[in-house]
Amino acid sequence: MPNDARVPQVSQYGSVDPAPPSPFTRVAELTERLCDETLPMFQRMRAVFSLRNERSDEACLALCQGFVSTSALLRHEIAYVLGQMQNPVALPTLIERLEDDHEHVMVRHEAAEAMGAIGDRTVLPILKRFSQDPLPEVAESCIVALDLLAWVDGAEFEETQW
Question: Which domains, ranges and CATH numbers included, belong to the chain?
Answer without folding.
Answer: 27-152 (1.25.10.10)
